[in-house]
């Protein structure tokens, strides 16, 4: 009898312990347990709003040197990376028959100049004959008036004067035509000379040869570049900034540039231009950033990372961005009261790339809010404050 009673007591004790254990597990570790959260306080300090983008190194002033007509490359005198000066001959194209055309044009111009000189001499002679004929006709008319000359003779003299004047006018017209022919011949020579000059590719600036695109013997079409020359002082970064973050970017703002080839070093820069035309497909805006001092061994086309400071506040209340939540299209934070959370609306200002958000209204310095929770919070949910959340509840 005592042994049976002892067994029942043990079973009851085990059952009670199991129920208590299950209850403890349900209220401390299971679905009925309070959600573990960590807290943070509103702090005061400097904030720097920044925007980030990826870009490439490009030359603002780049020159593609090539012919205006189809040509064959005769010589290339420089190579990629060579420093050149303004006016230096870099390459020469095969002039084909341009030299002959220049010589032929000069001969035509010389012949036209001779024609002009001959016409000028003829005009002088014709004008002299016309003056004599007009004077003779005037004298004959005076003698006819006195009765010393017949009418027929006077009319003949006047006819000779008219004819001489007409010849002088015709000779003047021939001189004008000869001059126009001479001018046209000179223009043809100048035009062919320009074509011949275009066969010589010279550097327009002091710069660096960035690309040698063709070798001697290559045939190229009009407008195709043989060489590319850049002004090394015009190197800058063409960065792409998300349109949602580009609204505060302005010319003159400071920037930090990190090269892909030198990721441990930060180069200072400045925004020099914000393009008016945006990329509607990628939803990006082009921002051009210049180096404060151009780094050595910089390569065109190299990828870079750009961080632009758009706003700076010396002393502002802030919270970690992770503490700010959006519920029903309202920014706010979770605050604890009597072991339960309530959603507290706030007005948020600028945000920094290191994960801090300015608090414009709704909180004061020192106010505590929830920064992390092991699961999504709901209004009036029970919570338990811990120092750190080691693992999320499953």
Poorly predicted ranges: none
Give the N-to-C terminal Cα separation. 48 Å
- The fraction of residues in strands falls at 35-45%
- What Rg is obtained from the alpha carbons, in whole angstroms? 47 Å
Mean pLDDT equals: 84
DSSP, total strands: 22
The arrangement of helices and strands along the chain is: HEEEEEEHHEEEEEEEEEEEEEEEE
Count of helical regions? 3
Write down the oligomeric state: single chain
Helix content: 25-40%
List the helices and strands and how they pair.
Elements: H1 2-28, E1 35-41, E2 43-59, E3 62-65, E4 71-76, E5 83-84, E6 89-93, H2 98-146, H3 151-197, E7 200-202, E8 207-212, E9 219-220, E10 227-230, E11 235-242, E12 254-259, E13 262-279, E14 284-291, E15 303-320, E16 325-327, E17 330-337, E18 340-345, E19 347-351, E20 356-361, E21 368-373, E22 383-385
Parallel strand pairs: 1-22
Antiparallel strand pairs: 1-21, 2-11, 2-15, 3-10, 4-6, 4-9, 5-8, 6-7, 8-10, 11-14, 12-13, 12-15, 13-14, 15-20, 16-17, 17-18, 19-20
Helix pairs in contact: 2-3
